[in-house]
Amino acid sequence: MLKELFKKISEQEFKFSNQEKELIDDYIKDDVIIKNGENYEINSKYKIGILKIDKNFAILEDLVTPIKNIKLELDALNGAFNNDLVLAKRVFNPRSKIKAKIIKVIEGKKAEILVYVKDGSFFTLKENIELKSKNTKKYKNEDVLLIDNKEFNEIKFIGNLNEPNIDEFISLYMYEELYRNTEKVEVEEFKEDSSNRIDLRDLAFCTIDPNSAKDHDDAIYFDEINNLLYVAIADVSYFVKEGSDLDKLAFKKSSTIYLPSRTLPMLPSVLSENLCSLKEGQDRYAYVFKLKLDLKKLKVESSELFSGIIKNHRNFSYGRIDRVLDGKLDLYNDVEKTIFDYLIPLYKITKNFRDSRLKNGYDFRTAENRLKLKNDLLENIEVEKSTASHQLIEECMLLANIEASKKVGALGIFRIHEEPDFKALSKLVDDVNVLGVKAKIKDNVHQTITHIQEEASKLLLRDEVDELIIQSLTQAKYSSKNLGHFGLGFKSYSHFTSPIRRYSDLVLHRILKSKKLPKDLDDICTHISDQERKIDKLVWDFEDRKYARWAKANIGNEIKVKIVDTEKAKAVCYDKVIGLKLVIENYKGQKLFSKHRVKIVSCCLATKLIVAILV
User: Fold this and answer.
1) Do 390 and 267 belong together in one domain?
2) Which sign does the torsion angle of CA 529, 530, 533, 534 carry?
3) What gap in Å lies between CA 85 and CA 106, rounded to an integer?
4) Which of 70, 309, 427, 435 has a CA that sits 20 to 30 A from residue 502's CA?
5) How confident is the model at residue 452 (pLDDT cuts 50, 70, 90)?
6) What does the pLDDT look like over 358-398, one tens digit per residue?
7) 431-470 burial by CB neighbour count: b if 16+ within 10 A, else e?
8) Do 366 and 488 belong together in one domain?
9) Where's the RNB domain (predicted)?
């Protein structure tokens, strides 16, 4: 009610109920509202709005006009919390930027906050805001608990920061994904529909995945004589009916979360690891693309899409196929020999497709750090780079994704990536020039980026410069409209090949089968794009907590780092604990990407802040 009342006054609407008039009188007495004749206005000394808290700052959202939003420091919140309706007093600021400090919570719902104890105060774990309270006396330093946001009373005791198994709870709680542990939906029994499917079980399909994979979304088979590539994808839409409880929960999750400790699947394990997964030696329902390849023009000449039934004749690891493509077949049986006989020529074909693709797209040298844990502590890091087997599967999946997007038409669910604007491109050129890379703006964006990569390679800075290029690009997202994919160089692109772990692919399958668009497609695209970004942050938060534990156990030890942020003195480790991020206390303007030896001097498990000094 109060929010609507203040909104009326801001919009100069003065028709009030008797109850509203009584409330207004109270605020007139407090000098918050000023009455001029029959008109009312909010005193310019004050601002009333909705509080939105981010990691390092907060926003006081104007009730009417977003352009009037005010940025607040976290120490100016005065006990207010997210979504509270608050009264803030403007503070004089000689630098002319509007500043304010919250003086009162006008309206706020009772909620719980995740906090830890430090020096007799509660601190919020997400923003590290101090909440002074007498209720801390019975707790030890670094105890973690849930408290209410009004009286700061305990709701639930969680544990202590020194217990490594607490990290998963913290990350899942802070990013609102804890429900995955408790919210379950029963999987219904399914009727067989083999008679309505094309039987491909005699074709020697195979899957190629990481060693640890339990969910096998995609399988391939190549008919070398007819240049026919079959890409078979788990037929999840058959098992997960639109609008069912199972579907609603999958939409809420939007994707599988892969933590170093465990996997939290989008679908129940009976589906993700069994009925939907293209397991070796098992008959499985699949949604299949049959692609006729034109090897001269390096394009898909024609494609068919149909429901099928396949058998995965062999599940391979990336490492095993890398050896095969390198001519090291190891021991093999007849089935494996049949598969190797088509994988080897298929790899050569996909290499040509890849070379053609990169004339419009980009080859960024990226590697993924896989954290390996033991007893919830960091044991080692494996660096996974794109190898021949990865690229083979990637090109096959790209072809299927492109064809799927073409069959949808102008409206559907697309994976889009916008081209960087001139300002972002100019800054990129300036940044690489500082590194000594002699680059300049070319006739178009593609020429400029490939030119920068070529010049960086001459100075052996390709990996570092690729990092800067990626940072300069906007993030890919989902859209109901086809706006193309800049990074991949495609005019039309979507996600079709991973419906076990991505809701976007499940929606696309349904669209292709029914030829109908969901009524709330734009909302679906927004939600799954937001979920994707949130889950990325959750995983990074969890991994940083594991790095922090390693750092705390290794205070006084030296590691090798490279500077990655000259303004904030940030560096990242590139040897013992690859990917560990820290702040250099005695930083004195060392060059971006320059390499140094540092000694770890402190670490906070709550904030994950690791501090080191140059040695």
Assistant:
1) yes
2) negative
3) 5
4) 309
5) very high
6) 988 888 777 889 999 999 999 999 998 899 999 999 999 99
7) bbeebebebeeeeebbebbebbbebbeeeebbebbbbbbe
8) yes
9) 197-518
Distances (CA, A) of 403 to 306, 406, 521: 13, 5, 20
- Rounded distance, CA 564 to CA 570, Å? 6
Q: How many residues does the chain have?
A: 615
SS3 415: strand
- The answer to whether residues 325 and 347 touch, using CB atoms and an 8 Å cutoff, is yes
The three-state secondary structure class of 333 is coil
Other CB atoms within a 10 A radius of the CB of residue 472 amount to: 20
Question: Taking residues 549-567, what's their average pLDDT?
Answer: 96
Helix (H, G, I), strand (E, B) or coil at 274: helix
Amino acid at site 204: A
Per residue in 472-513, pLDDT (tens digit) is 888 999 999 999 999 999 999 999 999 999 999 999 999 999
Check residue 93 and give its pLDDT.
Answer: 64
- Residue at 547 is within a domain: no
Angle between helices 245-253 and 503-514 (to 10 degrees): 130
Residue 92 has pLDDT above 70, yes or no: no
Task: Give the E-state strand segments of 386-465 in sequence order.
Answer: 411-416
Nearest to 489 by CA among 380, 371, 398: 398
Give exposure, 189-207, as e/b (b: 16+ Cβ within 10 Å). Answer: eeeeeeeebeebeebbbbb
Q: Answer for the pair 573, 561: CB distance below 8 angstroms, yes or no.
A: yes
Residues 556-585 have a mean pLDDT of 95
* Distance set, CA 236 to CA 19, 68, 338, 508 (Å): 55, 46, 28, 11
- Domain range holding 509? 198-418+474-539
CA–CA dist 166, 143 (Å, integer): 11
User: DSSP string covering 87-155, please?
Assistant: EEEEE--TT---EEEEEEEEE----EEEEEEETTEEEETTT--EE--GGGTTS-TTEEEEEETTT--EE
- Cα distances (Å, whole numbers) of residue 274 to 270, 340, 500, 503: 5, 26, 11, 18
